[in-house]
Design brief:
Elements lengths: L1 E4 L2 H7 L4 H6 L21 E4 L5 H14 L3
Parallel strand pairs: 1-2
Length: 71
């Protein structure tokens, strides 16, 4: 299990489609983190804090996990 750990405010900033804005206005039901609860995994094989890590670093860590089993 790979956990892409990203704060809601960062997800909202990255949302080009406007899904979160529409969810806050009540136009879209059951959006995770807004109108539907989210429970992060307890023990993921890898957690990537995407607000702090770039794409290349995330890919590198994922590759390391796949190739060697390192966290």
């Amino acid at each position: 299990e790979i956990y892409l750990d990203c704060p809601l405010d960062v997800c909202e900033q990255r949302d080009d489609a406007g899904l979160y804005s529409r969810a806050h206005r009540g136009e879209v039901p059951r959006v995770t983190g807004v109108s539907s609860p989210y429970e992060p995994p307890v023990q993921p094989a890898l957690a990537l804090r995407t607000a702090d890590l770039g794409v290349d670093e995330c890919v590198s860590r994922l590759r390391a996990l796949i190739q060697t089993g390192q966290r």
